[in-house]
Amino acid sequence: MTDTTDSAGFLKRIVEALERLAPPPAPTTGLDEADAFVWNAEEGRLDPVAEVSRVDLSLIKGIDRVRDILLDNTRRFAGGLPANNALLWGARGMGKSSMVKAAHAAVNAETPGSLILIEIHREDIETLPRLMTQLRVHERRVVIFCDDLSFDHDDTSYKSLKAVLEGGIEGRPKNVIFYATSNRRHLMPRDMMENERSTAINPSEAVEEKVSLSDRFGLWLGFHNCSQADYLDMVAGYAAHYGLKIEADALNAEAIEWSATRGSRSGRVAWQFIQDLAGRLGQTLG
Q1: CA quadruple 137, 143, 149, 150: dihedral sign
Q2: Which of 50, 89, 159, 171 counts the most CB atoms within 10 A of its CB?
Q3: Cα distance between residue 147 and residue 49, in whole Å
Q4: What is the pLDDT of residues 39-66, one digit of tens each?
């Protein structure tokens, strides 16, 4: 009897010691606290974002077609209708991430609180299944957003994304959709694809697993370098929106000179010019 009692006490002490060593449960965040969150992978929680850094949808110029496609897809998803995961790929600085945040804001302006935006960092993609598990039990519609997504030579975290988008046994939760931006159409460097083909027994199958990741996105929206006319239209739109006091001819001349010094034309370059111009004019961008 004594031996049994001692054994039970010993086991109880082991259990208590293990409980003390175990990390405390991650604090949970209700999805009603905000309309935007950042996924804190280390802590396993969602951190609310009080104010999203974004531009108004009306200020995104020169990419009207992709804007309308993404907005319509987002609007349908928020309304409970079928919609696709979206990959926004192409030229740097052409408004890919701005488009996602602006579409989220526009849909919520139409139907307040209908859509949540959750940003997951590229380096945390492996924890995506854990995030999906948390979201599966909620009813609110969620856009998970990863900016500047790509995968390098020895990176296997794309498998987590691939399984979540389509292939897992549970599938993607009905209340979740995934938007990503990338400079690469196939999310992997070209030399990686060519090396896989050159060393494989069956070159056509060697990169199929990685390339097929892009196929999980029903929408491929391409962003290309803009013309001078589109660039000047972006500049004029910003200047009018913020009420910058400058003549149109002077605005165009200075904007062209600015783009020449940068060696490129894009929405990002247009915005950087506007910030410089507003500073020189002594005006704020409220």
Answers
A1: positive
A2: 89
A3: 16
A4: 999 999 999 998 998 888 888 888 889 9
Backbone angles phi, psi at 244, to 5 degrees: -70, 130
Q: Which tens digit of pLDDT belongs to each residue from 126-152?
A: 898 899 889 988 889 999 999 988 777
Here the tokens at position 222 are: 């391409």
Q: What span, in angstroms and rounded, lies between the C-alpha atoms of 228 and 259?
A: 9
Contact indicator for 112, 31 with CB cutoff of 8 Å: no
**19 half-sphere exposure, CB direction, 13 A CA radius:** 6
The pTM assigned to this predicted structure is 0.79
Q: What is the DSSP string of the chain?
A: -HHHHHHHHHHHHHHHHHHHHSPPPPPP--TTS-SEEEEETTTTEEEE-SS-----GGG--S-HHHHHHHHHHHHHHHTT-----EEEEESTTSSHHHHHHHHHHHHHHHSTTSEEEEE--GGGGGGHHHHHHHHHT--SEEEEEESS----TT--THHHHHIIIIISSS-S-TTEEEEEEES-TTSS-HHHHHHHHHH-SSHHHHTHHHHHHHHT-SEEEEE-PPPHHHHHHHHHHHHHHTT----HHHHHHHHHHHHHHHT---HHHHHHHHHHHHHHHT----
Query: What is d(CA 215, CA 158) in angstroms, rounded to the nearest whole number?
Result: 13
Spatial CB neighbours of 141, under 8 Å, sequence gap ≥ 6: 77, 78, 80, 114, 115, 116, 175, 176, 177
Residues shown for the chain? 286
Distance CA 13, CA 95 (A): 58
Positive or negative torsion for Cα 70, 75, 77, 82: negative
